[in-house]
Amino acid sequence: MAAAARPVAGQAGAVTAGRRFDLGAVALAGVLAVVVPTLTMLDAAVPGRALAAVAFAVAVPGVPLAYALRLPHRLATVVLALCLSVAAALLGGAAGALLGRWDPLTAVTVTAAVGLVATPFAVSAIQAAPVPPPDPAPAAPRTGRIWGLGAVAVALSLWWVATRQVDAGAAGAVGLVAVAPPAYWLALLVLAGVLAWALLRPVLDHVVLAAGCLAAVVCCYLLVNVADAAAGPGTTWVHVGFVDFVSRTGELATGADARFSWPGFLAGTAQLVATAGLADAAPLALPGPAFFAALALPALWLIGRLLTGSPRLAWLGAVLYVAFNWYQQDYLSAQAVGFVLYTGVLAVLLWAFMSADVPPLPGPRWRAWLRAPRRVPGRPRAGPGGRAVSGATVVGLEAALTLVIAALVVSHQLTPVALVAALLCFTLAGATRLRTLWVAAAAMFVGWFSYGATGFWTGHIEDLFGDLGRVRGNVSTGVGERLVGDPLYQQMQYSRIGWTGLLCLAAAAGWLMVRRRRGAVLAAGLAAAPAVLMAVQSYGGEVVIRCALYASPVLAPLAAVAVAGAGRTLIRVSWKVGPALRVAAAFASVAVLLAMLTTTRGLNASFEHVTAAQVERARGVLAAAPDGARIGTVEAVGPLPLARFGQVFAVAMPPPGCRGDVPACLLAQVGADGSAGPEYVYVTGTQEKAGQLRSGLPAGWTDRIVDTLLHTGGYHVVTRSAEVTVLRRGPARGRGAEGGS
Question: For residue 61, is the peptide bond before it cis, meaning its omega torsion is within 30 degrees of 0?
């Protein structure tokens, strides 16, 4: 027995490295649990405080708690740790705001204490973990890793040069592809070469593949944000403003905006802002898309590994997910955090199912389907033939997932519905021991919606339930009504729809190829489950996008199966295909994927980007405006809502529904001398582009609005440029006032 527990030759190094990683993660979480509350208490302005606060939010208390559960799978443990830490931050912030005891220091101190208490149990679990069976796969050569990481560094350097050259404001109806500089395209070509080479190597190097995927995310998701030194799209700044309100007042404005009825994200982010020592959430918003993609990547890879049975296909699935993710739901928002938790729950449950002994379902297929809901899989095992986890571990896992679901329920109004549908799929497929988890999730959602979110539905019953069951109408709102405005822009919108349609077709083909494997029926259910949202709500015309987003963690690895199958078929029918030609074909394919991602994701760059100058002028106006002031704006894009929510108010100019005789509408709104108009008017070049592309308005339409207001004699120019125009009602003041130039 003692000899069986001892690592075999060649395996000792891997076991030691894995155990060092585990102990290092727990140790880092312990250090953060001491350092971050201390810095928060002292309010010390030390370098790296913000980075330490973000690391605390994703590592404490989740890392020690997850390791203490003794799950026999390292990546599943990491995924659960991330979800638990984020959930703790969301629940801690929400509890303080709801109870009227807003105190970020107390919240992080309690969170840190929980992590520190769990640390000894985590260390004990790591040391007592059995040695895994020998891994027959050879280690990746170090020379190839050096070359691969060096190429990734070159690509990021080229991308940085591109951020100094790109002008998103010059993008028109075709989007970012029209203005992306050569350095950007060269960076994508280098990344395509790295990913193609790494995917086809005989021995996979997970470090190089992870670095390549993350570099592709940075290059394609953050080009405009870094170039403009500010986060986009404009909705980001609405959330920055909401977080500012919570930070400033310690309360929730549930009567002013329905999104405060789901306070987890807003209060949790406000807590992070305080812990990081920041003035507001703007610095967190700029890297947001890459940050949330990085958090979701472990769960996405784990799902792909379990569904395809291949690490190589799991990485190909991750590349496909990155390339098809044009939805831009990963900015600083409850949706982005919710997607991380949603994907994490699916990954952990899928691992538990695929690693367990599952009773067969004999008989005809239709009878097997009827019996499936009564099937109870065994407890998860540490690999084939490994020892099953204890009953206490299963109970602890259920408690941990319930905590994550609770955090999701109080943070976002739509994601819990998709998660309940996915959990129900696990139960109907007989793929989980946690058969009533979907009931608990549904009960939490209904309970919170009924009692915690009354500010959302009170007085809006017709709006809320008017879309219920209107699948066709909700789809029309999410697709048809978006194809309006500039004709060329409309045509480019079809590229987005077609790109997602291609992913769905490839996933369907991939599913047919694996339909007889364990988990195939479950995978089909998880891919289709988000469609239930279309029968519930139009969600402001975004429900179709959200359905595609929630399905993508399953669609991408299934599509990877189809892509790999097509590649093998081409090789078989060819006379002779050497390694160089295979790499060249893979390089071309990945390059096309990244180019299409730039096309689809960057389509709205001209009006969704936000510049540092716009933020500066918005801050100037907000600082100068008195309480109760109104600020006129011609389109709901840009950074104006970044602060003073509830103290100043945005006014649409001209009023909604008036697009005909604009001067007459404006004069009726502000009065012949402008005396009835808002105290300030804030107009940006992105608002001009939004009107042109989305509504088909003529070029210069915002200039005509500004000129009409100036002709009343009641408004004066504070600043006027191609990027930002600010008007103030009343007599002119000295130059430079209120952020003027």
Answer: yes
Of 440, 561, 581, nearest in space to 505 by CA: 561
Q: Is the pTM of this model over 0.90?
A: yes
Strand (E) or helix (H) holding 652: strand 649-652
Is 226 in contact with 287 (CB distance < 8 Å)?
no
How many Cβ atoms from other residues are within 10 Å of residue 136's Cβ?
A: 5
Q: At what angle do helices 104-128 and 12-42 cross, to 10 degrees?
A: 160
- What is the DSSP track for 690-710? HHHHHH-PPTTHHHHHHHHHH
pLDDT by residue (tens digit) across 441-474? 999 999 998 887 776 656 555 555 555 545 454 4
Candidates 493, 513, 92; CA nearest to 272 is 92
Give the Cα separation of 444 and 91 in Å (integer): 14
Give how far Cα 277 sits from Cα of 79, 251, 284, 339, Å: 28, 19, 12, 27
Please confirm whether the linkage preceding 654 is cis (ω < 30° from 0): yes
* Res 229 pLDDT > 70: yes
Q: Are 464 and 470 in contact (CB under 8 A)?
A: no
On whether the CB atoms of residues 728 and 679 are closer than 8 A, the answer is yes
The structure tokens listed for 392 are 């206490």
Q: What b/e string do you get for 548-580 counting C-beta neighbours within 10 Å, with b at 16 or more?
A: bbbbbbbbbbbbbbbbbbebeeeeeeeeeeeee
627 burial level (CB within 10 Å; 0-12, 13-18, 19+): exposed
Which H or E element spans position 631? strand 630-633
Question: Both tokens of residue 615?
Answer: 């933020």
Q: How far is CA 584 from CA 62, 196, 427, 434, 589, in A?
A: 43, 8, 44, 46, 9
CB 354 within 8 A of CB 518: yes
Look at 483 and 524; give whichever has higher pLDDT: 524
**Contacts (Cβ under 8 Å, ≥6 apart) of 694:** 484, 485, 486, 489, 607
Task: Tell me whether the omega of the peptide bond preceding residue 182 falls within 30 degrees of 0, making it cis.
Answer: no
Question: What is the phi/psi pair of residue 636, to 5°?
Answer: -85, 55
Under 8 Å between Cβ of 639 and 719? no
Contacts 24+ apart (CB under 8 A), 252-260: 252/97, 252/98, 253/645, 253/646, 254/455, 255/455, 256/645, 256/646, 257/645, 258/453, 258/455, 258/456, 258/460, 259/334, 260/455
**DSSP state letters, 364-417:** -HHHHHHHGGG------BSSTTPPBPPHHHHHHHHHHHHHHHHHHHTT-SSHHH
Token pair for 364: 């005809």
Largest CA distance in the chain: 94
Q: How many CB atoms lie within 10 A of CB 497?
A: 15
Q: Using alpha carbons only, what angle is made at residue 343 by residues 282 and 66, rounded to the nearest 5 degrees? A: 90
Rounded to 5 degrees, what are φ and ψ at 396? -65, -40
299-354 pLDDT, tens digit each: 999 999 999 999 999 999 999 999 999 999 999 999 999 999 999 999 999 999 99
Could you read off the pLDDT of 120-154 as tens digits, one per residue?
999 999 998 776 655 556 666 788 899 999 999 99
- Of the candidates 680, 673, 692, 672, the one whose C-alpha atom is nearest the C-alpha of residue 633 is 680
Q: Tell me how far apart the alpha carbons of residues 499 and 363 are, in angstroms, rounded to a whole number.
A: 40
* 8 A C-beta contact, residue 260 and residue 242: yes
Half-sphere exposure of 276 (CA within 13 A, CB side): 23
- 237: which residues sit within 8 A by CB, 6+ positions away? 231, 285, 610, 638, 639, 640, 641, 642
Sign of the torsion angle spanned by Cα atoms 100, 101, 105, 110: negative
Q: DSSP class of residue 648?
A: B
pLDDT of residue 513: 95
Identify the pLDDT of residue 741: 43
- For residue 483, CA distances in Å to 14, 460, 487, 497, 607 come to 54, 28, 9, 10, 16
